[in-house]
Every structure is written in C-alpha cells, then in structure tokens.
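Hello,

I think I submitted the DP6 job twice by accident. Can you confirm which output corresponds to this input? Input:
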Amino acid sequence: MQSWTATAISCPNIAFIKYWGNRDEALHIPSNGSISMNLEGLFTRTQVAFTPALQSDQLTLNQQNIHGSPLERVSAILELVREMAAIKLFASVKSHNNFPTGAGIASSAAAFAALALAASRAAGLELDEQGLSRLARLGSGSACRSVPGGFVEWQAGDDNLSSFAQSIAPAGYWDLVDCVAVISQAHKPTSSLEGHALAGTSPLQAARLADTSRRLEICRQAILERDFAALAEIIELDSNLMHSVMMTSQPALFYWQPVTLEIMAQVAAWRRNGLPACYTVDAGPNVHVLCLGDHASQVKNRLLQIPGVKSVLTARTGGPARLIP
Ligand code: DP6
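Support: Only one job matched these inputs. Its output is below.
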C-alpha cells in the first residue's frame, strides 16, 4: 500500500567558501560556487504526512505552530513535490531542531534538506541525490549542500538543472571538528534571504566573485590533501571577503559583535603560536572554529574562557541527509 508519511534527518553545514548573492533570486542560482562541511550531531528531523483531512499545509517547528513566510517557503516545496508526484493532498510537516535557530548555524540548510527528502519520499517519489539537492536548493540555497555527505561542493550552474551539490570527500575522510562559539542565540537582524539581494550593491562583490574559482580550487585541494594550513588561510580569507561585502552593501550589514572580533583575533593568534585552528563566520555573530579532532577539546576549553562565549557546540563531519524509520 502507498505510504504517505516519511521522516528524514539532516545536518546543517558550515561553508568554507561562502555563498553570498544570487544570479537568480527565485531559483537560488548562486553568483558563485561554494564548499562546505556537514555538521554531525546537530540535526533537523522532519516528518511529512500527506493527509486527506487537511485543508492546507501545516508546519510545526519544535512543537510550535508556524505561519507566514516560513510556512509559505515550505508550502512552495510541497507544491513542487505534489506536481512531480501528481497528488493533491495537503501535508502536515513536523520539524525539530536540536540546535539554536537564526544565529549563524544554518538551520534553513538542514531544514530544507530534510524536507526535500521526507516530502518527496512521502509522496512516493524516489529522487536521486542530484534531484534532492536541486529540490532542497529551491527552499534555501545552502540546503543543497546538506543533501550529500561529508565535504561538499555546490556547482553554481546557470539554471535549475545545473545547480546542485556533490560530495568531494566522505565524512570520515578527514577528522575536522567545528567548534561553534555561541555568543548569541537571538534571531539575526537581517535574514540571509534579504542579505543575498543586497550583495550586488557592494562595490566589492565583483572583486570577490572574480577571485572565487581560485579560492574554490585551493579549498578543494586543501581538503583532498588534508592540508590544514592551506585550509585555514583560505577559509579565513573567504569569510573576511564575504563580511567585507556585507559591510559595504547598501544598507550596510554588520553581523559581527565585539566578541566575534575578539574570538577571530584570538584564534589567529593561537594558530601563529602553533595550535592549528581557524575561524569562519556566517550571517550571524557566532564563530565557527575549525580544528583537527586531536585539538578539539583544547580549542573548546580556550573558547569557553573568552568572556561573552556562552557555550561551545562541537561537531565532526556529518553524513548525508537520510530517511529514518
Ligand atoms: C552566509 O542558504 O541561508 O550562510 O538561499 O536565502 O535561504 P537562502 O540563503 P542561505 O544563505 C547562506 C549564507 C551563508 C553562507 C553559506 O552558507 O554559504
């Protein structure tokens, strides 16, 4: 018998080479390719149930009913799934995050990767990884990178078909750990959705884009060769470039807080003094500090000593989005 319910689990990801700005806002065709690592242990679990009794799509996140634009974004993906599967039923979507939303840990990435998998399977579709990655991308750009496992590259592409993410190396390939220094769990003032639309107003965006294929190449090689020194240099440069674009957009976007900058300075100093660690910051104030597994507890302890750091989440490299019973 046809099953109309499925549950999927997916990790967020942290970008080493960032996605900032779109060539096509509606389809989330990015202005540049990007590279990320999935974050194990942090997850979104999403159950989708297509049900005859429903009069509209429904969404709960951490057991709270959600309306307005988040529900509309989810419904848009459900609508695509309904079209592909030729079904007319509305769905109830129940999602649960085990990490704080809206503070520089890409909750929308895990959310739309899990939604794409759960909704398509609940509707009886068997999309391959590229198809799932494309569908997730239509919900949130960075979500296409949470579909494959491990270290992942999103080929920018130039249309819906050519823009999807693929694994560069599996989760166990390199023992990297992301130590996320949480300094605020508040929702970010400007969503990345609005931020992407402003990227082109910065005179620095063109220079950032012109240099992206070089950074992608260095980052890809650093991962494949497990070269931490090369990775550290390129991901700090890339994060600083994205924030330079943000700060010089009109209106200007400042995601850093004083503690953000303090952590960045300390991490760079640790590295100069022999502790392999580097930072990257998304569209929020929290700092992702990457290090090797052997140094993770030392990095975590040092971060916790910095005034203003409320907690530190640690995550090794995570696997692909997957169905769960
Ligand atoms: C700074 O994927 O969250 O985290 O496509 O509008 O949902 P939408 O944006 P989103 O943007 C992520 C921006 C970033 C960098 C990155 O993850 O590459």
